[in-house]
């Protein structure tokens, strides 16, 4: 039995290559993330869940949900959670692990062309996935379209530490340490080379905030987590806007 050729995305973010890359890393994805983030992924997940503030009876979209770790955290509230991801491998792994949770379902979906009705969700969230979309601004408009007026968006994404000394330390870790660790724990270490490239090329906190406003979100704010390695962005679908809200 031959080992499949590692699938590595690049900054062109071709959807088929991105999806194929995540298909390959799906089985060990959560464990690898915990190791590479030095356990911070759990803290980031808790912060995101608290920002979404899910409640029973609400309908929540967790986009780029991967294997559903973030979705499970949301579903514990009793809300109905849709875990959506572009990668069929991730969706399959999520169903295998969490398919018995009654208020959690898995759907394969393209972030720029969501298979949901206008104003369908009380809240939408996306953790570490917007950076991998080939047109992130279109994804933000789609998320606005499917959110009810007054509904919430929470985006948790890698960002840029504002303190210069810490930013240098972070670049050293990503450039020198992370690739070595990825080779030891990941089934596709080349995928984590792409991770570094995508983080370096991703815009800063203020730019992403501007994108959210352009996509029709109001009351946009962010706070840094882990000294700005990650930023948690929030916004509201304005009550006065039409449900399509892609303005």
TrEMBL record:
<feature type="binding site">
    <location>
        <position position="127"/>
    </location>
    <ligand>
        <name>S-adenosyl-L-methionine</name>
    </ligand>
</feature>
<dbReference type="GO" id="GO:0032259">
    <property type="term" value="P:methylation"/>
</dbReference>
<feature type="binding site">
    <location>
        <position position="67"/>
    </location>
    <ligand>
        <name>S-adenosyl-L-methionine</name>
    </ligand>
</feature>
<dbReference type="InterPro" id="IPR029063">
    <property type="entry name" value="SAM-dependent_MTases_sf"/>
</dbReference>
<keyword id="KW-0949">S-adenosyl-L-methionine</keyword>
<keyword id="KW-0808">Transferase</keyword>
<dbReference type="Pfam" id="PF01209">
    <property type="entry name" value="Ubie_methyltran"/>
</dbReference>
<protein>
    <recommendedName>
        <fullName>Demethylmenaquinone methyltransferase</fullName>
        <ecNumber>2.1.1.163</ecNumber>
    </recommendedName>
</protein>
<feature type="binding site">
    <location>
        <position position="85"/>
    </location>
    <ligand>
        <name>S-adenosyl-L-methionine</name>
    </ligand>
</feature>
<keyword id="KW-0474">Menaquinone biosynthesis</keyword>
<dbReference type="GO" id="GO:0009234">
    <property type="term" value="P:menaquinone biosynthetic process"/>
</dbReference>
<comment type="similarity">
    <text>Belongs to the class I-like SAM-binding methyltransferase superfamily. MenG/UbiE family.</text>
</comment>
<comment type="pathway">
    <text>Quinol/quinone metabolism; menaquinone biosynthesis; menaquinol from 1,4-dihydroxy-2-naphthoate: step 2/2.</text>
</comment>
<keyword id="KW-0489">Methyltransferase</keyword>
<dbReference type="GO" id="GO:0043770">
    <property type="term" value="F:demethylmenaquinone methyltransferase activity"/>
</dbReference>
<feature type="binding site">
    <location>
        <begin position="110"/>
        <end position="111"/>
    </location>
    <ligand>
        <name>S-adenosyl-L-methionine</name>
    </ligand>
</feature>
<dbReference type="InterPro" id="IPR004033">
    <property type="entry name" value="UbiE/COQ5_MeTrFase"/>
</dbReference>
<comment type="function">
    <text>Methyltransferase required for the conversion of demethylmenaquinol (DMKH2) to menaquinol (MKH2).</text>
</comment>
<dbReference type="InterPro" id="IPR023576">
    <property type="entry name" value="UbiE/COQ5_MeTrFase_CS"/>
</dbReference>
């Amino acid at each position: 039995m031959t080992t499949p050729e590692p699938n590595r995305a690049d900054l062109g973010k071709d959807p088929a290559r991105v999806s194929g890359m995540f298909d390959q890393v799906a089985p060990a994805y959560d464990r690898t993330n915990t190791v590479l983030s030095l356990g911070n992924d759990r803290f980031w997940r808790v912060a995101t869940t608290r920002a979404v503030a899910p409640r029973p009876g609400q309908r929540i979209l967790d986009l780029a949900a991967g294997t559903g770790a973030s979705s499970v955290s949301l579903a514990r509230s009793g809300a109905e959670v849709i875990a959506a991801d572009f990668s069929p491998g991730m969706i399959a792994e999520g169903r295998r692990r969490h398919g018995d949770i009654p208020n959690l379902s898995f759907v394969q979906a393209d972030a720029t062309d969501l298979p949901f009705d206008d104003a369908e969700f009380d809240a939408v969230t996306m953790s570490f996935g917007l950076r991998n979309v080939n047109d992130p601004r279109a994804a933000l408009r789609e998320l606005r379209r499917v959110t009810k007026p007054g509904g919430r968006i929470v985006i948790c994404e890698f960002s840029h530490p504002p303190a210069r000394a810490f930013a240098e330390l972070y670049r050293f870790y990503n450039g020198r340490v992370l690739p070595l660790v990825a080779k030891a724990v990941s089934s596709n270490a080349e995928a984590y080379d792409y991770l570094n490239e995508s983080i370096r090329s991703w815009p800063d906190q203020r730019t992403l905030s501007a994108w959210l406003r352009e996509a029709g979100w109001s009351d946009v704010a962010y706070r840094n987590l882990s000294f700005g390695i990650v930023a948690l962005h929030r916004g509201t679908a304005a009550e006065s806007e039409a449900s399509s809200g892609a303005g």
